[in-house]
Design brief:
By secondary structure, the chain is an alpha/beta fold. The protein has seven helices and eleven strands. Helix 2 packs across helix 3. It binds S-adenosylmethionine (SAM).
Length: 256
């Protein structure tokens, strides 16, 4: 998705009320444990009271997980409908989490965070390398010295193999069928997403776009932004990625 400054349309808006139903099988608690493990391996553990910035927080599921660990969490996302869901969830748990409507390529927060996380291939939604570069610079500016940025991406392999072409099983409250087309020249994947809300028979059709960034692309923009040590992991493992890896986690540390 291009940043809101370029394109005011929000491809997450139509599915925001259904996003958590669609993600009901996503183990956010295990993802949180994995992120905590990666932070410890980097020698910068997540502690109770750590200040955590959840980038592209969406409906705030990761933000709530970190809040449950005792962290002071802020979530940012450029989709207000997604953030409305996040705010409702936080209010239901009496959690005071600021959820701010900001574009990753255009936000400024004081250097107050120990950890920034950006989960579920959200950086792939930044389609312009110049905007990705700006986003990493903005993240860096919001972090304290020695802080960590941990994020995952869909790899070139994932988008080349059209892993977005999928449908869920009949019987789900929201049925979906997605078809993707990857263009190796532009490195862009266009995903046509069709949903049916079973109860109401509401049909929703949207188009998402993601950009594939190579390991070299990501290391280059992270280094330019000032991240000093960068480690990549095959998703949910503690081993390096392979050419077959479809999702890779990056742990990028700022100097002390
Ligand atoms: C796949 S969802 C992931 C949400 C959440 N991190 C999760 O794990 O459920 C991607 C999110 O990225 C957000 N997003 C995409 N591009 C963005 C940008 N340029 N700035 C801020 N948020 C963005 C979308 O609005 C959406 O909420």
């Amino acid at each position: 998705m291009p940043s809101r400054g370029r394109n005011p349309s929000d491809p997450f808006a139509p599915i925001a009320p259904h996003y958590d139903t669609l993600m009901s099988n996503v183990p956010y608690d295990l993802w949180t444990q994995y992120v905590v493990l990666l932070a410890s391996r980097a020698g910068r553990p997540v502690r109770r009271d750590s200040a955590v910035l959840d980038l592209a927080t969406g409906t705030g599921s990761m933000a709530l997980e970190f809040a449950a660990l005792g962290c002071r969490v802020t979530g940012i996302d450029c989709s207000d409908p997604m953030l409305q869901q996040a705010r409702k969830k936080a209010a239901a748990q009496c959690l005071d989490i600021p959820f701010l409507c900001r574009d990753l390529a255009d936000f400024h927060l004081p250097p107050s965070f120990d950890h920034a996380v950006c989960l579920y291939d959200s950086f792939n939604y930044i389609l312009e390398p110049t905007e990705l570069k700006q986003a990493f610079a903005n993240v860096r500016a919001a972090l304290k010295p020695a802080a960590l940025l941990i994020f995952d991406v869909n790899t070139v392999t994932a988008l080349e193999q059209e892993l977005f072409t999928q449908r869920n099983r009949p019987g789900s409250p929201v049925e979906y069928r997605w078809r993707s087309r990857y263009n190796p020249k532009t490195q862009l994947s266009r995903i046509k997403m069709d949903f049916r809300v079973v109860d109401t028979n509401e049909r929703i059709s949207i188009v998402h776009q993601q950009r594939a960034y190579t390991d070299a692309d990501l290391r280059s923009v992270l280094t330019d932004a000032g991240f000093a040590s960068i480690t990549a992991y095959d998703a949910y493992r503690t081993t390096p990625p392979t050419p077959e890896s479809d999702r890779v986690f990056y742990v990028a540390a700022l100097p002390d």
